[in-house]
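User: Predict the structure for this protein chain, please.
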Amino acid sequence: MVLRGFRGILGLTALVWVFGMGGCGLPAGSFLSPPNSLVQALWVWSGSGAMDGPADRRVLVERSAASGVNALYVDLYRGTPNASGRRMYEDAEIADLITRAHAQGIEVWAAYGAPDWPALGCDPSAFPLRRMADVLGYNRDNPAAPLDGVMLDVEPPEPLSPNDYQALLALYECLRDALMAEGIAMGVAIRFFWDDPVEYPAGSGRVKPAYQHILDAVSGPVVVMGYRDFAGTACPDDGLICLDQDEIAYASRVGGAVLVGLETANCAPGCGPEKVTFFEEGQGALNREAAKVVAHFRGEPGFAGFAVHAYRDAYLRGLPEWPSTNPGFPRGR
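Assistant: Here is the predicted structure, written as structure tokens:
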């Protein structure tokens, strides 16, 4: 079984799951990428127009490559089946994006998820597993331009009960196993405050903060959506560093990989107070605060880089404060 590496960040972390040794932990130097490299992932939603045509896909890849982006989390879901019977963009459209991206050293992950997925469960006929079947089917039919992984954003309504967390973890494990059976890694995006003590599996006596169970379960990176427009310092500060430090410390212990989430959309107050997004501050502030995060977590092997939300909401859009490229974003430790 061959597992494509997420710029090497998945490396042996993913292979551990393939061979059934999850949770044993990995040494700091076990990732296959150069130790000082960082991930810059970029969320790409259908509303951005990035998949509308060849020119839009070309622009996405060109702007990403010029900005140090090395992974795209792309919303590929379509409400009606394509010519192959999958609820995705047409195979040729997906393959065109992947071919362009791979030529620039950029991985392409399918982004999926909705708040009701844990309730839908993992029956083969249920919606979540059918979407994973779409990914598997696409890769089987397009071996020259495969998807590199799946990134899930599943955010059930708050507050989450122990049963809610158990359902979420069970979903993660089910979808992970379906994908890993064919060598496809799965990452997840989580809320920064998922630190409630949870027993999982139920009745096992294994009680940990929810985020630790999640890092144990997934085969790819975990994006912590601790969105703030300043790096701050260690807790009790309210910045990026504080909101991500526990997940990064645990990832360093077990050989996982955490990406610090950065919000750039014009979403306040809809997504929370103004401090959750860099939209008002602009690209220069984004780069400066990201550099402070890098400086703080430089010695943590569990810190893998960043996931920027989202393409053309502001980031890489071509506005005065948000130019079409960002060559100044930090790329290494």
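The domain at 11-309 is CATH 3.20.20.80 (TIM Barrel).
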